[in-house]
Amino acid sequence: MMNILEEAIIYATVLHQGKVRKFGNRPYILHPLEVAQILSTMTDDVEIITAGILHDIVEDTDGTLPEIEKLFGPRVAKLVAAESEEEYPDEEPGATWQRRKEGTLRALKKTDDIGVKMLWLADKLANVRSLAGMYSEHGEAMWKNFHQNDPEMQHWYYQSLAEQLELSLNKTGAFKELIKHINFIWPGTFDSEKARYRKYREVSVDGCKLLGRGAKGDVYRYNDELVIKVFNQNNTYRDVEREIALSRSAFILGVPTAISFGIVSVGNRYGAMYELVDSETVSKNLSRSPGQVETYAKIMADLAHTIHDAEAIKEADFPDVRDRLRDYINGGLGYHDEALAGKCMKLIDDLPDTCHLVHGDFHTGNVFLQKGEALLIDMDRISRGQPIAELSDLYYFYVILGEDDPSVVEKFMGFSYKTARKFFDAFLRCYLGTDDEEKLREVAEKASLIGYARKIRKIRSGKSQADCQQEEIDRCLDRIRKLTEKLDTLTYEI
Prior knowledge:
Blueprint: H1 4-15, H2 30-40, H3 46-54, H4 57-60, H5 65-72, H6 74-82, H7 93-110, H8 114-138, H9 151-169, H10 173-185, E1 201-202, E2 209-213, E3 217-221, E4 226-231, H11 237-252, E5 262-266, E6 269-275, E7 279-281, H12 282-288, H13 293-309, H14 321-330, H15 338-349, E8 357-358, E9 367-370, E10 373-376, E11 383-384, H16 388-398, H17 406-413, H18 417-432, H19 437-460, H20 467-486
Helix pairs in contact: 1-3, 2-3, 2-8, 3-6, 3-8, 5-6, 7-9, 8-9, 8-10, 9-10, 13-18, 14-15, 14-19, 16-18, 16-19, 19-20
């Protein structure tokens, strides 16, 4: 009696009969057999290997998922479905290439099924082996025969795939070989060390104290000496490495930041370890002693000056902060009022192109106090530009987020919305070095315009928009309209 693998080979051979691969004009059946062989180096799970044999049936033959499920079971069918691209039958393959690839990357990012990830790795390794062979013979000329003939788009796709697969499969020989071939076709894509054996230290944050939450991840107290930032699942190792590199660059420029000494894996997410002995966030200190708001506001204001007084050359890796501000407009406000968006975009475009450092996520949850010294974490948004961008972040965190629901700030910062408002007012006085109410109001209004645009962008980026959220958008739009009537610049003088 035949086993499931033998049955799958016969079934695939019949359905792929007469078909040839565009890579080398070889019989098509050789490709799924190669994928199955690669899978057998990673797992002995017969259903995963079977899915490798059948992975192109739905896309390239008359076979169907219901037929596969009937013959080989629901799990095999599910795996094959996860490796099948969305179809656009009424359009040319070249016109839909990017949409199809973006869809597969999104699906791969969301899955926790190691079988799906193995299947993707095996298929793409088989493909890139063929690409590397063709590249050896024909060089860049080979791309003219592909639906996507731009080598940089192909580069983007294979690099993105490898980044998605790295944490789960970086210890496999298949992943190492994938990196080797990508680096051969597109030199320098990955550190050559990634093509060698490497195992991330595996840690758990079960039972660890949560210190704070941010846009990119959560920070935990790992032990008395260490804290760990656990990045969100959609962050790749490249994102983590980039943040660590930016932290080091900022440190060299005199910004007091904690430097990570290693990347670890926390389940299916990356983590970065920091040595922060006997330290707590300013948020924690402020929640414990809200009467000391002036003290902590001064600490934060002094730290802000240290950041903003540091200057980086434009050729460095720090992006222009205006790009982030433009995204707030394009991704939110522009959908509701194009004319208003145009006015705001002009105000942003008119900001001077300076080299002052801007942290980009500056709040009390991202600043630790260690023996009285303030140390920053979360450096992934650090950029260069006008400090008004930083002040807008503070206005957003401490004022705007709590206007419709004070509990949002209370959950985020760990102290009351009333304390948050007091903190912002005290911070602004300390930072600007003035008690002039007119001056304070002027700067706060300029910061608030960007903050309200950010709020609209945040709401629109959510999965759904309830009626109450539309009311919030309308209030933000009304405030921005009033502000643009009186503001002709977002710059200010200290």
